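Subject: Interface between my chains keeps coming out wrong

I've been trying for a while to get a sensible model of this assembly. When I model each chain on its own everything looks fine, but I need the whole thing in one frame so I can look at the contacts. Pasting all components below, labels as-is. Any help appreciated, I'm running out of ideas.
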Amino acid sequence: MIVYIIRRLMQAALVMVVMSVLVFAGIYLIGDPVLMMISPDASELEREAVRKALHLDLPMWQQYLLFVNDALHGNFGKSFLAGQPAMGLIFERFPATLELAFASLVLSLAIGLPLGVYAGLRPHTAGSKTIMTGSILGFSLPNFWVGLMLIMVFAVLLPDLVPGWPRLPASGRGATVDVLGVKLSFLTGDGLLHLLLPAVTLSLYKGALIVRLARATAREVLPMDYVKFARAKGLSERRIVGVHVLKNIMIPIATVSGLEFGQTVAFAVVTETIFSWPGVGKLLIDSILLLDRPVVVAYLVIIVFFFVALNLVVDLLYSVLDPRVRLESRAT
Amino acid sequence: MTVALEPVAAKPQTPFQRIVSDFCENRLAVFGLVLVVLSIFVAAAAPLISTQNPFDIAGLDLLDAKSPPGTMSSDGKITYWLGTDGQARDMMSAIFYGMRISLFVGFVSVLAALAIGVVVGLVAAYAGGRTDAFLMRIVDIMLSFPAILVALILLSVLGKGIDKVLIALILVQWAYFARAARGAALVERNKEYVEAATCLALPPWRIVFRHMLPNCMPSLIVIATITLARAIALEATLSFLGVGVPVTQPSLGMLISNGFEFLLSGSYWISFFPGVALAIAIIGINLAGDHLRDVLNPRNLR
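Reply #2:
Try treating it as a single job with all components included. I did that and got this:
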């Protein structure tokens, strides 16, 4: 197990080095950030001064080494635009993104799991067929468009047309509460309202995925001997489904939820742009569009680290949930 | 599965006929196929069925900007069935042309990714050993990052343009095909016909591409349909974020994005209808692809 973890960590380190070189080289090739930052009528001398201050006059490999040296000290340089350290800027924004991703994870599990299990238990009822067709819609409808339509319906049309219909907020986080220095939205009523539309948008795709997965696993588990045995023992249907079936459904669900959590954080880029949610995704888009190199690079290094760590956690969690995996790894 | 158990019709069927008849049994899948055909027709015939050329700025009358659906144009010549956008473009014509760009990007990127992925996957499966381990490690790493993030970063480096979107989409998609092709080829590699071909001393490339590849195709076709839907959605998302196609060649995602700023003022049609068109294309592909998977399932191929 330890050898496995070490090997994974080494692979992760290699991935991070390769990614950082690629990103750095790529970002270096595009545009001149100085042109974006200084007014066009600044003199050549002023421009040169800014270039020097940002080390943009050095050759590329020196800039890269400088960057690596700083990165190892947790310093990714200052954002060209905000003037703050890029790393701090990202960590400041990270809680908002995590909050949104968690909220959508909870939503998609709370809705997707019961629907999927129901469709697996009674595959031929009209309800199940509706659920399955609906899940194709969840996959197919362009997510960002659904977000826009939710804004249109709940923030514009319904409140306009129906008197007294509450107007749901469509941008920002609303009121936040400081918990240990981290701002959280979901502890205030206003924050929860602000969280609602973005979280629903973000949870659609994953909810559909969980429905299909839960259904497929339920159908796989139901004909198993231990379910038949539980039935033969005369256990209540509730106990059979709630304990014996559900426990086995949870294994793939946990894996996919974990792996998909990373996807959700990545896809939050889109949701955050639509709803002006002040998370890292919006920061990334803004930084890309404004050529704010340190922020983009810092975001990438952090996100690569995040994904590698996430995959490792999911693998370990998997072996905790499913004893067979543990036995196999011990045997080899 | 019940289909296979029913008494088979007296007339012997070719595999292709069987696939067609199996496919047509599912009404939802046929409906999906109809949607796909409709989308392709609209895209192909865009210049013929549009009432206006949305790229021709001289033909636009700014007085007509943001007209709601069903308005007559100010010169009384055409009706804006789906309204107009902020630049007085007829939405219906813009959608037809946008569908063209969206489908073009989707099809080309998937076909190119399929070609690259198949070569990598088959080579890995046939060569085995270190080549296999090396190629699959790259695939693993590619797949461990979300497609949207990789595409976003690539485009932030490459800049805007249809060709650049194509490059980004191909780069994020080839790994799916490589993994699938390798998986399918590993199964095929141990079959007798490959052994027979090896005994005939056929060159490896011939064994791989003439004999193994056709047998790997069913599963690859299914993945291609799903990937096609994803590619179209991804292109739309990237264009929506402002890093995809340029303003002069608006795809459906770009049109939706253009309508975003007018949404809060109540001009819903600028975003709504391009989204419906996009959804029709993607839902059609997914519905048809979902059933195609059952039909092409090797277990059903007797």
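Reply #3:
Confirming on my end. Chain B is about 70% helix and 0% strand.
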